[in-house]
Sequence to fold (169 residues):
Amino acid sequence: MAYSRASVSAKIGAPADDVWQHVGSFANLKAIGQGVITSCDVDKTGTIRKLRVKGVKGVITERLIKYDSQTRSQIYCIIDKPNNIVPFVNYTATIKVKSATARSCSIEWSSRFEPKKGETAKDCQAFALGVYDTGIGGVKKRLGLTKPKKKAAAKAKAKPKAKARAKKK
Fold:
């Protein structure tokens, strides 16, 4: 099988070190998972995490391959199990945070993988990109960079119905 790739890059209006505190922690995925990740348990070594996803049976087990706080990057992989809940195998991902200015940076979250038998590369990419977008959105939310959703405008008051007048005979 040929490898496929997925990648998201986003600019964030916060210092790179602040962003790295959220996305760079291998144990912090639940905090930025915006309710999608229901648990993130890390082993004593800090290099193996088990993730549970809302509404899905099973666990995703990942291993931290490389962590570098100086370059603000990490590489991790999914420890392949035949029946894990993701649509791909041989998955390796990289997260990088790069300074742009003193008050802004960019996050790049990318991966390479092989689709499982019966899965398409396009569907696998969409799955991966959804995970990355959720994580980046969670970082923005934790940093207070997302605009709160406006409440739906109050419904216009319905005009009172004209009272029917009975005709006098």
Summary: Confidence is low (pLDDT under 50) at residues 153-169. DSSP finds three helices and seven strands in the chain. Helices lie at 16-23, 29-32, 121-142. The first strand starts at residue 4 and ends at 12.
